[in-house]
Amino acid sequence: MLFIETFRENITQFLFGTGILEWCGVFTGILCVWLAAKNNIWNWPVAIVSVLIYIFIFFETKLYADMGLQVYFFAMNIYGWYFWSKHRSNPQESRPVTLITKKEIVLSIIGVIGFTIGLGLLLFKKTDASFPFIDSFCTACSLIAQIFLARKVLQNWLIWIFVDAIYIGLYFSKDLYATGLMYALYIGIATMGYLDWRKVYREQNS
């Protein structure tokens, strides 16, 4: 009975405790990821709207690393929009999907470790941030994944699947139920994106 009552309270909170601004963020967030998974360039302008919404949401919930991440996403969305629209040899063709290199893997690991420790300590000592080190680790992984997404690197989707799984628990703990559900859906979309992009890559090199 206790489990049923807790589940009922969570559903009620999810349906009626989620504000309009968060629902708008959820809708645009899901739409932009789905468009990206489908290799559609219109994911970038939709993503810009989504990150602007979440800047306000994360400020209110004291997830400062995630708030800063949205500012970075804003800049990267502009870059990604430009990069996807340009092809060096033929402007009429879309950018090809590429694979991650060993150098990129090593640099990414070093970057994630350094960023997590540095930002985590800063947030822990200087702010009232919730989960400073977990938040910083997810932020670091997201920074790397977003670069690879903008550069059309296939493995960006694997990084997103990993970090989104962590974000689900993080957002549920802050009562951001709609956002947590959105990230659960992101995992499915990211899986679809990986499979679709892998197919495109194979077709490019066949």
Q: If you compute it from the alpha carbons, what radius of gyration comes out, rounded to the nearest whole angstrom?
A: 18 Å
Give the topology string: H per helix, E per strand: HHHHHHHH
Total count of strands: 0
Distance N terminus to C terminus?
Answer: 58 Å
Strand content: under 5%
Mean pLDDT: 85
Can you tell me the residue ranges where pLDDT is under 50 for at least 5 consecutive residues? none
Broad structural category? mainly alpha
Number of helices: 8
Helical content (DSSP H or I, runs of 4+): over 70%
Main sheet properties: none
Characterize the overall form: globular
Explained architecture:
79% of the residues lie in helices and 0% in strands. The chain is built from eight helices and no strands. It has helices at residues 2-16, 20-37, 43-60, 64-85, 102-126, 132-150, 156-173, 177-204. The radius of gyration is 18 Å and the shape is globular.
SSE layout and pairings?
Blueprint: H1 2-16, H2 20-37, H3 43-60, H4 64-85, H5 102-126, H6 132-150, H7 156-173, H8 177-204
Helix pairs in contact: 2-3, 2-8, 3-4, 4-6, 5-6, 6-7, 7-8
